[in-house]
Amino acid sequence: MTKHFFGDTTVLLGRSLRHITRSLDTIITTTIMPIAFLLLFVYVFGGAIKTGSSSSYVQYLLPGILLITVATGISYTAFRLFLDMKNGIFERFQSMPIARSAVLWAHVLTSLVANLISLVVVVLVALLMGFRSGASVLGWLAVLGILVLFTLALTWIAVIPGLTAKSADGASAFSYPLVFLPFLSSAFVPTGTMPGPVRWFAENQPVTSIVNAIRGLLTEQPVGSDIWIALAWCAGILVVAYFFATLTYRRKIS
Fold it and tell me: How many domains does the chain have?
């Protein structure tokens, strides 16, 4: 059964990836907004923003931009799922001798691959803008691990509107709050500069811990408990989102 699942998932993953390679504008569109934010905040607002760090603002900003990149990218997962539901693809696959969950996992893994490509593009742009990191290979692997876990968590959230939305716009619109959540965190400015209630929210929401952990790893600064809090947030969101996404999927195909 396990071999059957992995084989079916691999085949369906290839199908989804071929759709992306035939429509590279998806990845390009996904990276436009994060790169625009990167350029805007570094070259327009960066000189006026005080982070309390001697390093350039792009060093401070990049972790938050990476999370925005993922939040932007997962909207396409919901959109592609919606199209498959609307076009009856799921019903066709049900009539074939394939593992039911393989269809869902193919979309999730496609999201992971596409988002990793987008993240690489954003990092390359940041390097052109002066971003530098002395992090070790282990540090970069830790950053990659956090981003993979974060991407999977948000992708499983995206599965739910992808399966339940009534329109294409509704399927992708859910990601807007996720895109702007980093603005209410330590992604752009230190939380200490914020007024009381906003500061409390910023310091206790998941993005701040994730951003702080990634920033500390890339700048070779102590990450303290931030990395464990970040991993706990990502893992917790992933488990809850996976549960509700698979529950929704079973109800849809039953």
Answer: 1
Distance CA 51, CA 47 (A): 10
Domain extent, residue 63, equals 2-253
pLDDT class for 1, splitting at 50, 70, 90? very low
Please, what's the largest Cα pairwise distance for the chain? 61
* Digit-coded pLDDT (tens) for 92-129: 666 665 666 777 888 888 889 889 989 999 999 999 99
Please give the average per-residue pLDDT across 153-163, as a whole number. Answer: 91
CB 248 within 8 A of CB 160: yes
Q: Are 191 and 203 in contact (CB under 8 A)?
A: yes
Residue among 135, 84, 86, 92 nearest 108 (CA): 84
The mean per-residue pLDDT over the stretch 82-98 comes to 68
Nearest-angstrom CA–CA distance, 208 and 95 = 45
What are the DSSP calls for 180-197, one per residue?
A: HGGGGTTTTS-GGGS-HH
Distance (Å, whole) CA 101 – CA 82? 16
Distance CA 138, CA 144 (A): 10
Averaged pLDDT for residues 41-55: 73
Residue 33 is predicted with a pLDDT of 87
Condensed to tens digits (0 to 9), the pLDDT of residues 211-227 reads 999 999 998 888 888 99
CA-CA distance, 89 to 45, in Å (whole number)?
Answer: 46
DSSP H or E segment with residue 250: helix 226-253
Query: Which of 44, 69, 47 lies closest to 56, judged by CA?
Result: 47
